[in-house]
Amino acid sequence: MKKQVKCPQCGKPVIWSPDNPFRPFCSERCKMLDLGAWAMEKRYIPGEPASSEGSNEASSNDTDSSEI
User: Whole-prediction pTM value?
Assistant: First the structure.
């Protein structure tokens, strides 16, 4: 028995099978729409912003150059 799920993009029923190269999506279009939403930061994983010492140096250098 094959499992049926809903496409996370459009909600259309999809057979969960290795034969579907776009799973869990119903089509390449829905897969690409989802990828685009992640790329445009419409979707994200909540959390603290990443920081490192390198990024602090870059911001202090930016301040120095604006003062010249």
Answer: 0.63
User: Residue 32 is encoded by which pair of tokens?
Assistant: 């690409």
Average pLDDT, the chain: 83
CA gap 15, 57 in Å, rounded: 51
Spatial neighbors of 21 by CB under 8 A, at least 6 apart, are none
38 sits in which H/E element = helix 28-39
- Distance, in Å, from the CA atom of 19 to the CA atom of 16, rounded to the nearest integer, reads 8
CA distances from 33 to 4, 7, 12, 52, 56 (A): 21, 12, 14, 32, 35
| Residues 40-59: tens digit of each pLDDT | 999 999 999 888 766 555 44
